[in-house]
Amino acid sequence: MTNLPPLGYTVGTEQEMEYTPMNKRDLLDRCARDGTQRMLLARMLDRLELCQQREIPTQTPFLSPGEQAAGANLLAACGHPRHLFFGGFEGAERKICLFLPQWQESEDAIGQEDGPLAVLSATFRPESELTHRDLLGSLMGLGITREKIGDILISPGVAQVLVLRETLTILLSQWESAGRWKLSLRETPLSGLHPAVPQTKVIRDTVATPRLDAVVSSGFSLSRAKAAALISAGRVSLNHRQCLKADRTVIQGDIISCRGLGKCMVKECSGQSRKGRTMLLLERYI
Q: What tens digit of pLDDT does each residue of 152-161 get?
């Protein structure tokens, strides 16, 4: 693309690819891990085909980090067609994938007032102490599926909810409360978002070898055996993809998450101590 996207947004290249039913099946056979992921990736290909055939912008629903990683693999296998992962702000966890026609630049796709995402601000009494779970549960109680809801940013007395614009009118008219607490709603521009700075803990440690089980042990204060058991049970993801191999080598920049324990990033994984152990600098999100 000719212009650089805003910091924090992932954009594909201008290369396009024509699909046939056969190579579409081949792509799904190669990239999909299971039936659920195959359906997700097939819908992404449908959106991409519509964009390329009609020269109109199209989009997916909100994707989790793992779904984004699977989608990125698929789009790489497709030859990196023009696309943009966008969650409303830098550092968003849940994002949509926008497919861009040749005439549209990324800044135009996300900068329009009537763009694909909207922000719904819900104010409530600060003493209510509503949680992410309370708000998400009340939204889904209205029949709104998870794929239509992005990140939920909570501060005292107010929550900012990223939603697909198509759901905005419904929510403004029907979302009245969370639990027993009344809500006051209004639309807010994307520029009015106030994401909190994530809190992290710096961990310095050494490991005999930068294997996944050793780094999980350091990052989450576990025994090596417990870390290996969590990996074999499928509870650990490396760069948002489930990893069952305890001996997988971890490198600088990798993101490790463990279901029920949180997430950490490998900031440095280089150099050796006097005893020949690999020195680690980890950043754990708390």
A: 999 999 999 9
User: What are the structural domains of the chain?
Assistant: 10-111 (no CATH), 117-192 (3.30.70.330), 200-285 (3.10.290.10)
Question: What b-and-e string marks burial along 169-179, b requiring 16 or more CB atoms within 10 Å of the CB?
Answer: eebeeebeebe
Token digits of residue 222? 């576990």
Q: What is the pTM of this model?
A: 0.84
